[in-house]
Amino acid sequence: MSTELPSHDEVVTHARVQDVRLPGGQGTFALITLDNGFDHTKPNSFGPQGLTELAGVLDTLAQRAEAEEIVGVGITGKPFIFAVGADLTGVPSISSRDQALEIARLGHETFQKISDLSVPTFAFINGASMGGGVEIALYADYRTIASDVPAYATPECFLGLVPGWGGTYLLPHLIGVEKALTLIVANPLANNKMVNGKQAFELGVADRLLEPVTFLEDSLLFAGKVIAGEESVERTPVDTSAEAWDTVVEAARGQVDAKVGGAAPAPYCALDLVKAARTAQRADAFEAENQALADLLMTDELRAGLYSFDLVQKRAKRPAGAPDKSLARKVTKVGIVGAGLMASQMALLFARRLEVPVVLTDLDQERVDKGVKYVHDEIDKLLLKGRVSQDKSNRLKGLVSGSVTKDAFADADFVIEAVFEEMGVKKTVFAEVEEYVSAECVLATNTSSLDITEMAADLKHPERVVGFHFFNPVAIMPLLEIIRGERTDDATLATAFATGKGLKKTCILVKNSPSFVVNRLLGRFMGEAGRIADEGTPFETVERAFAGVTPMPPFMLISLVGPAIALHNSETLHGAFPERFYVSPNLAKVVEARIPSFYGSDGKPDQQVLDLFEPAGEPVELTAEQVRERALEALADETRRMLDEGVVEAPMDIDLAMITGAGFPFWNGGVTPLLDRTGIAEKVTGKRFLPKGAASVPA
Known about the structure:
- The protein is built from 28 helices and 17 strands.
- By secondary structure, it is α/β, with parallel strands linked by helices.
- The protein has an 8-stranded mixed β-sheet, with helices on both faces. It has a 6-stranded mixed β-sheet with strand order 1-2-3-5-7-9, with helices on both faces.
- Helix 6 packs parallel to helix 9 (242-260).
- The chain is globular.
């Protein structure tokens, strides 16, 4: 007796069939097009209704194949989209393991019908393909892929699942265990890295790489030749020896340990399934995937991963507390004060995304020229990679210019400063800019920690000053903290949000407070880690303690942002909250010695840094577990204080900020679901941050 599947408002991906006469006269070919009836902004996905419909279509085609009415079957997607996997919107309604198991089996049973057809089967991967979209194509006998496919991935481990509709068995047997684990485990744990169509073809997932303009015609031509016996497909044999296979799996296990430290079950489950796939019978491997999916769908990690996904996909698009967008003023020219690396990265982003003139200023012509040259060189790199055309390259270069005088900002609508992180310097810069710009021109600061209200206090129009804090590297990190000073008006704030949206950033409204959101939480967290190291816990133990909590160990993170910047942030926070924020004397020594990183070029801790560290008079050595708990307790305390102070509107904004600004893992839900799940939130603050079921399995 089957379990009744939970119901939800599924956007059904229909399987539309049309008969096609193959070129060359080979006969009638049934082409299935997956299409949910929406444009590419709502990709095809597989829910229970869609899978049931697809199963019915495949049953009909099986009958037609047996009757020799068709000579082959192909599957493709709607324009720009093949399919992006399971419909995860229904997961919150799954309340039992039996329901989870039923959905897992439905996917396998439906896709298996493709393999069971008595005629040759083809998948024509015409657009974005992820998760179950990758897997359905693996059931076909042959695959083509378009060269312009922007994203091909099995992102399940990123969310807290595994490729459980055949992926952990079919993929390694098609392309080899090492390449398969790159897609299944390594890329998802590398902040959900994806490959494009050409890279997917090079991995071996498709038999032919075809150009997009004539993709369907060329795919049908390929199918016709294969069916006629005029074209054969050769694939590299897969080494399934125990020595080759198991060695790769165990090496990957070591990499997973370093990344997640046992904190996330999904990647370990994926490794176990891939390891067993070497000798397992196909049916047994698929049933093992069913059981794994049923288990994982009922974990808090998966529910936290879906909470994260919802934050990034939905809450990020509707920033909490943002003013009416109709108040935003048009930005037709941007000025940037400073021409260093951060300013140059900003100039490139503004030019590419807004396509308006951008002018950089600095103290002398040499610095200005260096900044403009950086932008032009980066545009040249985009041209070489084929990411912009020659015309676009010329146009972008023409938009970016430099000047040694601030009168170049006279007709700018938006001026952002990226100068030295010192209040006096920033106040002077804004006073100079205000002499040239209109009263409506927004003055934005990229400060990472300083008081916006104080920065604006002496200006004629303090209402047009707003915090506009990017994260480094500017082009890659999605988060933009938008900070409202006491006198910032709604038009300025609305313009800042509209500009951030134009830059394709995740914008979060933040109250004017020391170090805002991400740097404040990281400052408390890294300060506690530094205090623990200073007290006598070995450097390596501290670093190892945070696998699966933070995207990288604390001292590696300090090395990434730069020890001097990390020290400045901790000093700023210590000045504001001396009882909670610790300034490490050993970090200060590293900065004084001008050592740029705690790590050497070999990726190991730098010995000169270790030599500088002076242990406490009476060293206290903690275990990795004790280190982790103490740092998380500090994080819980600071998170509660920030919410009580109204730094952001809700815990969801803190989680969104830590995911998009600091790379905190999806499977932890950012910060607050992890603190709830471990019991640390209640231990430290007396209550949970989120209600049960919001980012966890319902009680």
